[in-house]
Design goal:
Its cofactor is FAD. With 315 residues, the chain is of the alpha+beta class. The chain folds into three domains: 94 residues, Butyryl-Coa Dehydrogenase, subunit A, domain 1, CATH 1.10.540; 77 residues, PUA domain-like fold; 142 residues, Butyryl-CoA Dehydrogenase, subunit A, domain 3, CATH 1.20.140. Helix content is 51%, strand content 16%. It contains ten helices and ten strands. Helix 3 packs across helix 6 and helix 6 runs parallel beside helix 8. It is globular and about 75 Å long.
Length: 315
């Protein structure tokens, strides 16, 4: 098994060399789809450290691949229920998306599902936590949105008296949510780190008044502040993946760190930073969309307050 930093280097090199590779190709070449799948089901059997390393690199590259929803959340859901589907997820021939409780207006009656999931991450297999159960069902209709952040496809899923396949009792949903938040936090940390690299690189080469703009105190302070945010975000994401801190800590901190880093990257670049041709705007769009994926930072802090101080603190 590769060490996390070695895995990180492999993923970064692959994304740089083959940015248009499909999920199946990526999985065949690197094994990314089966990273968290147990070895007895055809996967690599890796853990939180490897997941965090890969997620950071995917966030850094603004990868559109379904690692978060399929290789992390769906795999975690199926470890407890529906293990027969894991080999297909592990080899990349199948992708999946997970619908958590409250993500849609769904009713399960008599083994049939009706309702709408307005926003779901893109995936071939729909895994839904509904009515205290984990089920899978084929949507009657899918509608793919044209989103501000084109690197994170979203779909609407519509069900109407749709038969379901019962996979389990659904007790794993909180762990699936928390692992998803931790993986997203690692992606956000990777994106923030890339923003810092871009800003620092520009500050070294852009000259004003006869010297690099990075020599000016105001720019130095911006970059130093972003560096602290990036390193703290990486620590928070890693700790959340290892269950050392509640995922709400990483969800809140990493979201705001990425938003701040993306904004400061544009500020350091000046006018060119807001042009369509420069990639800085793509990180800002990803940061803004990520901030809504599992709820905004305020929602994470509300959940954290209830965890620390008890339910009365959330009222």
């Amino acid at each position: 098994m590769a060490l996390p930093y070695e895995l990180s280097a492999v993923v970064r090199a692959y994304l740089a060399d083959r940015p248009q590779a499909s999920w199946r190709e990526f999985s065949d070449d690197v094994g990314i789809a089966g990273l968290l799948v147990p070895e007895e089901h055809g996967g690599a059997g890796c853990g939180p450290a490897e997941m965090t390393a890969v997620a950071e690199e995917l966030g850094r590259a603004l990868s559109p691949h379904p690692f978060l929803q399929s290789a992390v959340m769906a795999v975690e859901a199926l470890k407890a229920d529906g293990q027969g589907l894991l080999p297909s997820l592990a080899d990349g021939s199948l992708t999946a998306t997970v619908v958590l409780p409250g993500d849609g207006d769904l009713r399960l009656e008599g083994g049939r599902l009706t309702g709408v999931v307005p926003y779901a991450l893109e995936g071939g297999l729909a895994l839904l936590y509904v009515g205290g159960l984990l089920v899978t069902a084929v949507p009657e209709r899918r509608r793919t949105y044209r989103t501000m952040d084109g690197s994170r496809p979203l779909q609407e899923l519509v069900f109407h008296d749709t038969p379901v396949r019962h996979l389990g009792d659904g007790g794993s949903w909180a762990r699936v949510r928390d692992l998803g938040i931790a993986a997203l936090a690692a992606e956000q940390a990777g994106g923030a780190r890339r923003c810092l690299e871009m800003a620092a690189g520009h500050a070294k080469t852009r000259r004003q008044f006869g010297r690099p703009i990075g020599s000016f105190q105001a720019v130095k302070h911006k970059l130093a502040d972003v560096f602290l945010l990036v390193e703290s975000a990486r620590s928070a994401a890693g700790a959340a993946a290892r269950d050392e801190v509640p995922s709400a800590v990483a969800g809140s901190y990493c979201t705001e760190a990425y938003l701040a880093a993306a904004g400061e990257n544009i500020q350091v670049h000046g006018g060119i930073g807001v042009t369509w041709e420069h990639p800085a705007h793509r990180h800002l769009k990803r940061a803004v969309s990520d901030a809504q994926l599992f709820g905004p930072p305020q929602a994470h802090r509300t959940r954290l307050a209830a965890h620390v101080f008890g339910p009365a603190s959330s009222r």
